[in-house]
Design a protein that fits this description.
The chain has 295 residues and is an all-alpha fold. It is 65% helix and 0% strand.
């Protein structure tokens, strides 16, 4: 099939790499807060003192600590107490969610996603990933949550280029019946998963998030020497598929991905995706208010 010429594709690849490098770094407040959360010498008061500089984060932390999910018989009113109750890993998830919300709260017309749809999809995959990680006990639930949250971050960079090559990409998908990611790569030289991995590196986030983002559509391609990250990659892959099957954030590429039977087998989920989908419908229905607030 006739696509973009080599010169145009090369130009796009160079511009994509430049766009990644030009993505704003995480705000210094966020970087310092993440360092504090990762510091084994930190305590809840230390983190609370830092979070108190951002009223929105304080509200989110208190709101989650007092949510029906935890079912406390009394109300937590202090941010340090809420941090101690939730744990540093959960607070880290809250901080990163509030940060990436600013990047995702827009329309992504290249992927036929209206404003808010990418955010809702990412939050849904994150929550599904946390749920499965808790259910299967194969990886840290908060690591799975953040991996799910970040999995489509490459779309914020590749959106304009997908829009430019959309007609060619769509023909490849429809006529050759190949996954949207493969069509992106054939036409543009990159797919959004690869670009997402580059963004994770640009933000100096833990390498696990870069690998999950890069391989969430192709967990079978994760190199053998990285098999430590196989469970969380499989979980995010399956969670993404489940959310798409439930119609959460279906854009131009929404139904062009298959769920990996190998991932299901490794997770011990053969034949159980329908059950998980049924369980998760109730969770999704309670998430909308939190999403509206960027949590």
């Amino acid at each position: 099939m006739q696509g973009l010429d080599d010169r145009t594709r090369d130009l796009i690849q160079r511009r994509v790499l430049k766009r990644v490098k030009d993505i704003p770094s995480l705000p210094q407040f966020v970087v310092e807060t993440l360092k504090k959360l990762d510091d084994p010498k930190s305590n809840a008061n230390d983190v609370g003192a830092r979070l108190s500089k951002d009223e929105g984060l304080v509200v989110r932390v208190l709101r989650l600590a007092n949510s029906a999910y935890y079912g406390l018989s009394r109300r937590i009113t202090g941010v340090s107490e809420a941090i101690a109750f939730l744990g540093f890993k959960t607070v880290k998830s809250i901080v990163l969610a509030a940060t990436v919300y600013k990047f995702m709260d827009t329309a992504f017309t290249g992927y036929s996603l209206d404003r808010g749809q990418l955010w809702r999809h990412s939050q849904s995959v994150a929550a599904t990933s946390r749920y499965l990680a808790n259910k299967l006990s194969l990886c840290d639930p908060e690591e799975a949550y953040i991996g799910g949250l970040m999995h489509d971050i490459g779309k914020i960079v590749l959106n304009d280029y997908v829009r430019f090559g959309y007609s060619i990409i769509l023909r490849l998908v429809e006529e050759d019946n190949i996954p949207f990611c493969d069509a992106e790569r054939q036409v543009l030289g990159f797919d959004h998963a690869q670009v997402g991995g580059l963004v994770m590196e640009q933000w100096n986030l833990p390498e696990s998030y870069a690998y999950v983002t890069t391989y969430h559509h192709a967990p079978w391609d994760l190199p053998q020497d990285l098999n430590t990250f196989q469970p969380v990659t499989d979980i995010v892959h399956v969670s993404n598929a489940i959310c798409l099957m439930l119609g959460v954030g279906i854009g131009a590429d929404g139904m062009q991905y298959n769920i990996s039977t190998e991932s299901l087998e490794r997770l011990g989920m053969e034949g159980s995706t329908e059950q998980v989908m049924g369980e998760f419908v109730d969770i999704l229905s309670s998430m909308d208010d939190d999403m509206a607030d960027g949590k």
